[in-house]
Amino acid sequence: MNILVTGATGKVGDRLVPRLLSRGDKVRILVRDLQRAEGLIAHGAEAVQGDLLRPETLTQAVAGADAVIHLAAFFRGATPEETQAVNLQGTLALAEAALEAKVPRLVFASTNLVYGPGHGERLFREEDPPRPAAPYPTTKATAEEALMELHRSRGLGLRVVRLAFVYGEQDPHLTEGLHWFRGWTPAQPIHLVHHADVAQAFMLAAEREGIDGRIYNVADLEPVSAGEIMRLFGESAPEEAASRPLNAAWHQIVDTRKIREELGFQPLYPSLQDAVRADAL
Questions:
Q1: Which active-site residues does the annotation give?
Q2: CB-side exposure of 58: number of CA atoms within 13 Å?
Q3: How many CB atoms lie within 10 A of CB 173?
């Protein structure tokens, strides 16, 4: 397949692009800074210099693509205005370019944070209405709905992938999260997903026919507790931490049956402990 990847120099893209290339895909990457993409270019990716906020640069990027995997987004370290501009306006500019170029498929990277606070009654399913509680997932949920409207009204070949907390392959995300985990009750569950399984999900969503307009949760088969993560990094919670209430804002435990049943997704690392045993952190 000819695949355009945005956000290729980010933590997910930097691990996804080599996998796409290794299986024989022709990969083009949209980057603002060519120097940051030198490693991916050396692997065989074709780089196009451009910016989601400069729509005139997107025409060359999408030309001839069989699929677009849209990873680019502002998360931390950006103002609400910057987050809105890139995550919503930039996403819609990319979708318009894809429609104009008649790209058959656009895979949009979203987050399980769009579900908003969870209370443990049941797993979140794809049909549950988003109730995001922070700027980043709000922009993702708004972009999802705008893209879905383009799917309904203009035939955009949209597939939405909602990712849990991504980890693995020397990504510091888990260690960066320790400043949150230390403040939680050790029993607080969090749903993770390994980079290898993120890549699997994007590959399946990009290549499968007949799934336009569908949303898929992507996560490990088993959530993990904050206490387990802390012990993994040699930390222990104080005794009083056990009496802390669950943090509903981070309680997005999701149902992954849909992607497993419809796309044949089978996690290579079903749990954090599987990744630890495989030395895949």
A1: 136
A2: 22
A3: 13
